Amino acid sequence: MSETKKTRTEDLFSPKGMRDIAGNDYYRFQGFFEKAQEIANFYGFEPIETPVLEKTEVFATGVGEGTDIVEKEMYELKTKGGDSLVLRPEGTAAIMRSYIEQGMMNRPQPVYLYTYGPYFRHDKPQKGRYRQFYQFSVEILGKTKSTLDALVIYLGYKILEEAGIKDVSIKLNSIGDKESRTEYLRALTGYYRKFVNQLPPVDRERLKKNPLRILDSKEEKTKELNVNAPQALNYLNPVSKKHFKEVIEHLDELGVPYTIDHTMVRGLDYYTHTVFEYFATVSSEFGDGTESLALGGGGRYDYLAKRLGSKKDIPAVGMALGVDRILELSTTDLAPRIMKKPKVCFIQLGIEAKTKSLAIIEALRKAKMPLFHALGKDNISSQLAQAEKMGIPVAIIFGQKEAIDGTVMVRNMENRQQKTVPIEELAEYLKKMKI
Ligand code: AMP
């Protein structure tokens, strides 16, 4: 028999760029999602959950070749049946796929949807960048109205504000409709062609496949060239100009702060008209400076549906927030509603008491009395110390004698007074204590 290789625990640790989310971190995620849902729900958005896996083409044709997401970052797998599936790298294309598949065009328009969950990109992990990360997103499908663009931008802004992110800035731009975008791309390509010898290889490649992406290049030489590059706003046709003007008017009316940024185009093939990103200022990792951290972004994508095989265009607009980053920045208490600060600490002593404990705890759960127990512990002083440490105002002590008598000892942790109370009167007694 061959000797099996001994597994080392560290060989099984979570994959690079992916992590466990537990304890208080988990509650913060849950609390954030609860808050974001509450706001989205108020504004008439409905929940939707699409599969984590989609057919590769949903993103390959939807998001577009020539984007990092599709070309470098997708986790792709072949199923045993031979299908090619990917772990979703973003949400928009999947939501549009679902709108088409579910025939949502037959419902009153527009359709307001929100979703949240994990997304996957095989990027280089670093602070604030994971391979499995979480987004909360909203999408409005079925109408072209500029009010909807403003609503989406506003909603993201409000969610960030409620999550305790201070000084959010919004960068805004428009790349117009198909006609304007084609004109603009022509001008942009013409411009960079003139400087092709100065372009670094990565941007020369982008010039062939997706010239818009040159505008958010990290290469110093390209950044210099970008200063004088043609600006999308100068290529908007009258319809696109009107749309953008209306979006801006809405945002001004709503008091949402924004700056127009000509280099912000969001690189994905499906964007049209309005594009935007949310930023927060954070202290930079190196030295004492500050830098901008992208917390979310979105835009209008009126022509995505046809890329996914729809006969008709389906106008739509949406945004996604990066939840991992928001929670890393936020100092607000984001406890979810299920989290209740314990008001009583249940302390038990001896085997007799232990077996009867769960019935008492369950009665207090029914009476909606938030409780902390230490059933795993035997020592009374360590249980009391725990109650003290957690600042729990009342302890219930249930020992051998009480178990036989059918009573408990209720101890006020502040003044240390104790009273014996029959088990069947306990819930009522605690309520009267008004803790
Ligand atoms: P995007 O649509 O790609 O701009 O993503 C929207 C937001 O999701 C970004 O602004 C980030 O806050 C967040 N995000 C995107 N990729 C990652 C990642 N790999 N790790 C953590 N957050 C991410």
Description:
The chain has helices at residues 23-42, 56-62, 68-71, 92-101, 146-162, 178-194, 201-209, 220-227, 238-254, 304-307, 323-329, 351-366, 380-389, 400-405, 426-432; strands at residues 46-47, 53-55, 75-78, 84-87, 111-120, 132-141, 169-174, 259-260, 272-283, 290-300, 316-322, 344-348, 371-373, 394-398, 407-412, 418-422. The protein is built from 15 helices and 16 strands. It is elongated. The chain is of the alpha+beta class. Helices cover 37% and strands 22% of the residues. The model has no long low-confidence stretch (mean pLDDT 94). A hairpin with a 6-residue loop joins strand 9 and strand 10. The longest helix is centred in the N-terminal third of the chain and has 20 residues, at 23-42. The strands form three sheets. It has an eight-stranded mixed beta sheet, with helices on both faces. A five-stranded mixed beta sheet has the order 13-12-14-15-16, sandwiched between helices. It has a three-stranded antiparallel beta sheet with strand order 2-4-3. Helix 5 (146-162) runs parallel beside helix 9. Bound molecules: adenosine monophosphate (AMP).
